[in-house]
Amino acid sequence: LPARFEEAITVAAGYAPSGGNAQPWTFELTADSFVVRAVAPGVGMDIKGRGTAVACGAAALNAAIVAADHHRHDGGTAPADLATTTIDLDRGALAVTIPLGDRRYPELAELAPLITKRVTNRRADRRPNPIDDAVVDCLAAVAEPWQATVHHLAGERLAALAPAWAEADRLRFLDPRLHREMFGELRRPGRDPLADGLDERTMEWDRSDLAKLAILRRADVADRLRAWDAGHQVGRQTATHLQAAAGLMIVTVAGSGPDDYVRGGMALQRVWLEATRLRLGLQPMSPVFGYAQSRRELTELLGDRAGAALDEHRRQVDELIGLGADDRFILALRVHRAGPPSAISDRRPDRQPINLEPLPLVERQPAT
Asked: pTM higher than 0.85, yes or no?
């Protein structure tokens, strides 16, 4: 990270993970605060801006860590003291504020070197070794202060989850909007700017995969497969990928409001930093139904038939994981020890979003 605080906190916040590497934020630095403001990436899977809230929470934790490292933090080490989440009524967007002062907090500062080492790693583990229970317990422990839970699935439980996840990927591929957005995230070196989106080299595809990609990205192919209710091979590849994993860790948080998803994003980033310290490879995975809280939200996105089918899969996955009525999905992480990634996605140097469309407010669901 840069030596100057003003540069270090901005760069560190920008290194946070976000869906499709959309970097859905702007940053504001004053003498007494650093503010992460949400900006809508405008993608269908970011239902009610919940994925964006998760990304902003991750960025806020990075900023708080750097502030603590530079003797510039003014909160505490407890999650409730690190930042405050508000809805900026003037701009109609989520804002996460880190208070600045003159405190250091060594327990936060020691995480600073991990920020630039945390990466997405999609390598396939040819001989997946199960993750030790002690490692899982360690990752679960660092999430607990945020009222977040790490659910570890492996073996038969992971195999049971794979079909629902695979069908979600198939339906995502067949939906015109989600298909367009999925392939719109990909960036090809030498053809596309690489400052945002997903560099194709990070997908760890071989020549055969790239040949298939040229066909699968065509909208007319997706239209034909949708008319036939086909495309099951897309889902089978997802299932195979999951079943061959050493494990899948799903981070969830209690609560369904915008502040809860921000808190979940901070917990996710804390877990990912700890996994980086433990030299684990992690690949984020999120099904279409991940940020949905009801069947209505899925039918609005995909239509009555596909939305209803996805809602059933969502319920199956929630039951398999053991989620309570108030628990919400933050992100799933495929775990492996397959070596370093071939490439790392870049970040926009100016930290400015491409699409300045205001973010829709995250709605809190009424109690039932």
From this structure: yes
